[in-house]
């Protein structure tokens, strides 16, 4: 299964916006290096930060300035990106190959950005080719300022969980397979916080696997921030005998509703409130299991952690909590995704109702229909495409080429609809309208779930449906409380539409990566 297809839309800007003098600074000093680990019982090199896997958290508050000095102690170039954090008026700190030169081995680079008017749950990860398959990720929490209330009771504790598929092969071997025209194949397992599954079944999980244990107090209410940091696998998240009250996703407070389980797709982040309201006769399973994969590999693609009450009477036992009835049931997943709505009465990072943005009343200036197809061999390498183009990063970052008028680095000719031609590799980018509002439709004609992420921005998810998108589909758009986020899933043979309002382009119904 190939990695999710990423779409990179860049805001070209000359310089970062100046920070207000009174905004605090948070300083971090990181060394990124290989560390030894064996999450699934196989010893391998993973990417750690300051010796930690997963990496240390970034915990800041709205409007703070973040300064992260990164020393690259790997043996190849590296970039870190801040998944879901909006880069207001700048693309210089994004940490992707379109905006930054990679940090050479043995060198350091200092990222400086402001989390202006933002709150919520995010994560960082290495954006350079397939480094994320080796780790290098960690959490980002942006807290409300004291003067801005949160739209729920203050939790008794805050817990971050990283769920994701995992390969026992190293990232270099995986990268070589793709470059050689070979699919990656099924992952070897699913990790929770960098650890393998609890031995819930002796025939499926070998002895000696170290697992995650989450310690809680009875009667308390905890905020769980859950991030899918994997490479290609959608995961269903659930906690045995506990409801998940969804309150936030990727910086947007949501209408509050309970779920017994939720599909979390690659690159997505969610916050749940979970009340410890059980009798603690045993510990409880925390499960992240694969969705939309071959039935033969479902059992091994199940991550299991333990929720341990301080007054627990014994270990967890018995079967895991049930996943959705049908492994391939797209109807369940799409209806669940449609149910996630913006909380339009809550204050965001600023003291105004979020619904006052009225995104549904803004005139769209640009429309792009982006169609994906199954990966194809192009010049001997297996590549994914949008509108028959597979993007290749130039040696000169796009923003530098734009700033210094370097000719021939990129083309502003990305087509706004499929061209029905042979696929090709090109540095072709979308020419957005400055201060415009863009509608983007993702049509998934591939054979797997696709995740799309808008780097440095957020978008409003306004529609998602089966089959082929037509202009009549606009009649079904949610123009009032579609959630604003940065990553959206498009199931196979479905489409999604989103709108984005930013200072360069606006996108409808989907998040852009």
UniProtKB/TrEMBL annotation:
Domain Plastocyanin-like: 32-145, 158-312, 397-490
Signal peptide from the UniProt entry: 1-21
Molecular function as annotated in GO: copper ion binding; oxidoreductase activity
Keywords, ordered alphabetically: Signal
SUPFAM superfamilies: Cupredoxins
A Pfam family recorded for this sequence: Cu-oxidase
Family: Belongs to the multicopper oxidase family.
Protein name: Monocopper oxidase-like protein SKU5
